């Protein structure tokens, strides 16, 4: 049995809460690795937090600076030279484009690191897959990602998400919610099969648990209709009925529903509320004009219709909730579409996973306070075309 297979087997047979310990043992025995640590991205995407269960845990690492931050941001291994010819490897831990964190370890020499870098990089990916499975049975890694306690509403919202980023040859997705530790009702959801990507952008109504419960009902009603094979207009209608049946029109949910044909770029859209959609094409940002329809649950048995848009390979779509475009400065100036367009243009060279965080940081500067008083959601979708057409025209 070769050492890579042995490492895979050790991870898969380890208790869910002992993945890092099991990996550390096999890396030490077969790769002469030392100081093995797993760092996970925190909810606000500002720090990489240690997943160690030892009494003396290492400090958190910066998300946007330093060797670990570089590995996380570029999604490539970063080799850091240490004293006595030792090197420290920082390896991205990612599952199908969902960036979980960074695996850090020290090897005895640069020559040894060069010899086994590809193998260890692949092993970090295996660790990512095992983490996703392990989180069904332990809270160790969910706790490690928290720099402070989540509100109950935020706990419910984060558990509802499919992930924070996803990539395939045809597209790349990234999304972020703020305030990360106290989000109310904003949310996003996606699902893809061989030929279609479906995406929901939700602008929740209300505050606290009530907002979270409303979003939970709406998203699960949409998922139920989607999994039954209904087109997006019918998904909206069925979810509308579910929300109205529960709240009788007293509460409603604003949702933008999209169905993208991955082979052709044909996009069907149902605009059922307030989320906005902007298109970056050939370095020009424009708001996509949509036929405004009623939010879900406002009236009984509302009919919805889909409108169409044809995307071109290399197009970028950015979706925002009203907690982004309606934010005002202390002096009363609204953020607005012009400022949002500037922010999108300024981030055009970033990968989709990095765009939401960059836009939200720029928004924080406009607001003048680090913490939002309303939910703010940004989702970015890059479409490359079937076959992964050119990704860098911007």
From TrEMBL:
Its EC number is 3.1.3.16. It is an enzyme of class 3 (hydrolase). Keywords: Hydrolase. It comes from the Bacteria. Residues 51-71 are annotated as: Disordered. Transmembrane segments: none annotated. The keyword Transferase does not apply. Residues 166-383 form the PPM-type phosphatase domain. The keyword Hydrolase applies. InterPro entries: Bact_Sigma-Reg, PPM-type-like_dom_sf, PPM-type_phosphatase-like_dom. One of its GO terms (molecular function) is protein serine/threonine phosphatase activity. This is PP2C family protein-serine/threonine phosphatase.
């Amino acid at each position: 049995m070769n050492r890579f297979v042995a490492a895979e087997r050790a991870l898969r047979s380890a208790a869910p809460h002992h993945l890092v310990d099991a990996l550390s043992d096999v890396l030490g025995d077969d790769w002469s690795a030392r100081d093995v640590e797993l760092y996970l991205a925190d909810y606000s995407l500002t720090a990489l937090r240690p997943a160690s269960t030892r009494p003396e845990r290492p400090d958190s690492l910066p998300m946007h600076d330093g060797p670990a931050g570089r590995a996380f941001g570029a999604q490539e291994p970063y080799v850091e030279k240490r004293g006595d010819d030792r090197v420290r490897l920082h390896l991205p831990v990612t599952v199908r484009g969902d960036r979980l964190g960074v695996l850090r370890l020290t090897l005895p020499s640069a020559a040894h690191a060069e010899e086994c870098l590809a193998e260890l990089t692949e092993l970090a990916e295996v660790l990512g897959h095992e983490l996703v499975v392990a989180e069904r049975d332990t809270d160790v890694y969910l706790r490690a990602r928290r720099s402070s306690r989540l509100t109950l509403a935020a706990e419910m919202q984060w558990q509802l998400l499919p992930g924070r980023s996803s990539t395939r040859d045809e597209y790349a997705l990234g999304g972020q919610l703020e305030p990360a530790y106290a989000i109310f009702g904003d949310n996003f959801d996606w699902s893809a099969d061989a030929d279609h990507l479906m995406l929901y952008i939700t602008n929740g109504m209300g505050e606290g648990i009530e907002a979270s419960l409303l979003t939970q009902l709406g998203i699960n009603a949409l998922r139920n209709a989607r999994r039954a094979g209904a087109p997006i207009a019918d998904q909206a209608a069925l979810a509308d009925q579910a929300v109205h049946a529960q709240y009788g029109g007293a509460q409603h949910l604003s949702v933008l529903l999209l169905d993208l044909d991955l082979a052709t770029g044909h996009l069907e859209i149902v605009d059922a509320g307030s989320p906005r959609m902007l298109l970056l094409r050939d370095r020009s940002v424009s708001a996509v004009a949509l036929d405004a329809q009623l939010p879900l649950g406002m009236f009984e048995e509302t009919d919805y219709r889909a409108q169409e848009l044809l995307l071109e390979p290399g197009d970028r779509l950015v979706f925002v909730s009203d907690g982004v475009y309606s934010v005002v400065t202390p002096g009363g100036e609204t953020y607005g579409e012009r400022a949002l367009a500037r922010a999108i243009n300024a981030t055009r060279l970033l990968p989709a996973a990095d765009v939401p965080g960059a836009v939200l940081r720029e928004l924080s500067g406009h607001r003048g306070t680090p913490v939002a008083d309303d939910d703010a959601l940004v989702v970015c979708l890059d479409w490359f075309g079937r076959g992964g057409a050119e990704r860098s025209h911007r």
